[in-house]
Amino acid sequence: MPEAYVSTRYDGREADTPAGAAPGPAGTTVPHPLDNAARASLTGPHAHFAERHGRVLRYPVEVSPWLALPDEPEPADWAGIAALAGPGGEVPLLGHRGAAPQGWEITFDVAGVQMADDGVAGAPDPEAVPLGPADVPEMLDLVARTRPGPFMPRTIEMGTYLGIRRDGALIAMAGERLHPPGWTEISAVCTDPAFRGEGLATRLILAVAHGIRERGERPFLHTGAGNTGAIRLYESLGFRHRLDTRFFGVRVPLGS
């Protein structure tokens, strides 16, 4: 698949190597941490969250629904998914490019894009305030009304979340989700419909990106391939298309 981004080493320096790979020992290459971002996160900075069955990893379901397969899954890995999710359990897979085994129901299959920092000028925002556990009920309500993507009762534990309030009510938010080495995903970007058009999403993306850069890391994000308005916004902020990806969901057979 065509690649539109120069790969980086894990330390964030530019690597003069084919896109999607980084230099390893003795001239070998290792996968870029964003190629399988959920797995790189769960084997890296988010390893303390990881629930494992064989080679299959996942977040606790109240933190995030994403489950991470190896790059080349084998039958034993699908058996590991079944053991973790249980018969009839629905499992979302980020970036899985293969087919599901026979008898597994596909519950959704959506084309997506991954966009990575290519000069994002993060900036703090004076109106953005940190959100904490006490804010989760309002955050869940805002997510239910705006549907920015998965956000669970403990998703806030994945990183920093910022919000904007008006008259005490939470009207916009954005925060951090996957955390591969050297990178942090910006996610849950949403604005109450009554306040759209004020640039709140842009301000919060830049504020979250500022915090990521302050740690010496780089921001990235995902969106649907058909979400052309969001893609144009992200490009205007300094994100660049890195790869085409896939949001793919399967249901474990009841007999598993």
UniProtKB/TrEMBL annotation:
<dbReference type="InterPro" id="IPR000182">
    <property type="entry name" value="GNAT_dom"/>
</dbReference>
<dbReference type="Pfam" id="PF08445">
    <property type="entry name" value="FR47"/>
</dbReference>
<keyword id="KW-0808">Transferase</keyword>
<keyword id="KW-0012">Acyltransferase</keyword>
<feature type="compositionally biased region" description="Low complexity">
    <location>
        <begin position="17"/>
        <end position="29"/>
    </location>
</feature>
<dbReference type="InterPro" id="IPR013653">
    <property type="entry name" value="GCN5-like_dom"/>
</dbReference>
<dbReference type="GO" id="GO:0016747">
    <property type="term" value="F:acyltransferase activity, transferring groups other than amino-acyl groups"/>
</dbReference>
<feature type="domain" description="N-acetyltransferase">
    <location>
        <begin position="126"/>
        <end position="256"/>
    </location>
</feature>
<dbReference type="InterPro" id="IPR050680">
    <property type="entry name" value="YpeA/RimI_acetyltransf"/>
</dbReference>
<feature type="region of interest" description="Disordered">
    <location>
        <begin position="1"/>
        <end position="33"/>
    </location>
</feature>
<protein>
    <submittedName>
        <fullName>GNAT family N-acetyltransferase</fullName>
    </submittedName>
</protein>
<dbReference type="InterPro" id="IPR016181">
    <property type="entry name" value="Acyl_CoA_acyltransferase"/>
</dbReference>
